[in-house]
Task: structure prediction
Amino acid sequence: MNRIEIRNGRLIDPLNNIDRPASLFIAEGRIASIGSAPEGFAAERIIDASGAVVCPGFIDLGARLNSIEAELAAAVAGGVTSVVVPPDTDPPLDEPELADRLVHRAADIGRARVLPLGALTLGLKGERLAELGGLARAGCVAFSQANRPVVDTESLMRALEYAATFGYAVWLQPQDHWLARNGIAHAGEVASRLGLAGIPVSAETIAIATLVQLARDTGVRLHLTRLSSGAGARLLEVARSEGVAVTGDVSIHHLHLTENDIGYFDSQARFDPPLRSQSDRQALSDAAARGVLAICSDHTPVGADDKLLPFGEAKPGATGLELLLPLTLKWATEAGVSLPKALARITADPAAILGSDRGQLAVGAVADVCVFDPEANWRLLPEALRSKGKNTPFLGYELQGRVTACLIGGRQVCSGSPVESSK
Amino acid sequence: MHNPQLNAHGELTHLLSIEGLPREVVTHILDTAQSFMEVSQRDVKKVPLLRGKSVFNLFFENSTRTRTTFEIAAKRLSADVINLDIGRSSTAKGETLLDTIDNLCAMHANLFVVRHSASGAPYLIAEHLARVGRDDIHVVNAGDGRHAHPTQGLLDMYTIRHYKQEFTNLRVAIVGDILHSRVARSDIHALTTLGVPEVRAIGPQTLLPGHLDRMGVHVFHDLAEGLKDCDVVIMLRLQNERMNGALLPSAGEYFRLYGLTPDKLALAKPDAIVMHPGPMNRGVEIHSVVADGPQAVILPQVTFGIAVRMAVMSIVAGN
Result:
């Protein structure tokens, strides 16, 4: 196994409160030492991280991998070493064999680790329970409906009870089916003006209230995905302060964009849940700054043809794996959040939500490591992305922060600009 | 944000929405329409402004009335008119909207008149034409989803100007289903652009979109209160499928509360005019006595509509 030294970098490990210039020594796929080399350590490879940040590999709480090879290459190019995949694949991840196949396929590709969410119900239809036990054995880390509803509240309660029995976590996107079903944009000023059917904030808050109450009653470990409103974030914060086992995340898009980015019907700004008002965006940013919400890419590659449609017919979502770091850094700068805190939102915090011991660089930890140049500027053009999804409202933006090396289990899986030297 | 309907010189190259149009552009369209009114009185009702040009009526959503008025307007401008009811042909075969557009571009279209059930569809077409370098092809929105129906908005302004001369001293009420109405949105933008000091929206909360105040509109839920001292009353059509369900209990209750009867109209100014984009539901949103009464200007609206559409097409495609 490779012995690697990553030298001259700024080492940031939010979980262990480390932020200092230090070399990182890796052996047998794990962190062997920080600062000085272990006795007898002879590096087979040295990565020069001068001017760069060395931190735990990112854990993305939500990325769709339509074409798994390209998307996992995109993940490591973006410093993402673990990817949580929602179950709304085609077909949905509702059978153990499907999950098993996905996990093995990802292992064969040998890029980012894939952590599938199993379907909570068969076909994500919200009716009959999927085989949660079998799915868990096949590698599913939690259970989810992706963005599909469980309309029948009794079925929802039973599903949560069943999951709680075995200690499985359930991840749901809080959105009331009835209030959201006809909508295509935030029920706000822009939708009123453009004549787009609206989805009110209450679609989110009503769903959160229901889910939090059921989490309280059933004791299930609940994770709320892709919050879109300030009121939703506040409900989550209150529930947490009352001791309910509930966590939440926000996408990089909802941290930066609002309903105004729809402009003249720009389908790149179509998201599920929808982009909301400036005050919602601000509240989500504040909640992320306080650590109430983790940050994810909500990576959703959409083919060009599926965006070249009238706004309401276009597919929602945007590419994100390679934007997770630069957009998190941009958020940190704009919100006045320190770099270690910002990195916690995409490393230690997602690890805690997953109950995983990754997302850190403690001695003995698995060496999932990201090295990035925080000052590197790059222009977001389609050809700059490895993902097959080129759809993003940030196209043409000048972004800051580029990954220069990425290690998974001590194995280098990507290198960017030539900062690497061998010995 | 670049307004996609104006070219680099600020000239109107597409008509997609009244929102964002400078007042001078709106006034210029109305003035041009006025000059065309006389054409319709002639024996030979034609001017050669669009001779040799092809106007494609692309109606992805059914409409006889609007399509016909566009057709008449284009023919009076001497254009060749091609009517395509695409509602169930191309799209049913899986062709995308932009594939259809590319095909029609290849047939040397000069102007597309587009009606589509999705809000924003004409913007998609206009942006596509810009992307593929067809700045010579123009788009006129003939109604997109709930968003806009700018030529209806303009003909409503023409009608108001015809009867009231000035805009800056008027109180205008729009009554009914504003939530689902592209006409209402276009009227609101046109009225505020032309400097109408008080635009009112009257209807139950279920039929009014949120944030109307941000569009400069005063909201009323009571018809009598809202009509008081108005100079212009614009009634909207209530679609059949919305008459009974979650939005309204029944057409009968709607008529009792929001139908324009002679008694209710008496609350407006004595010389108030009554408008309706058609087709009317007599006994639902409007009483027949009002619809056929001296204050109704519903048929003149239709006549003015042809002149306004001639003006719009000649301005966007006339050079």
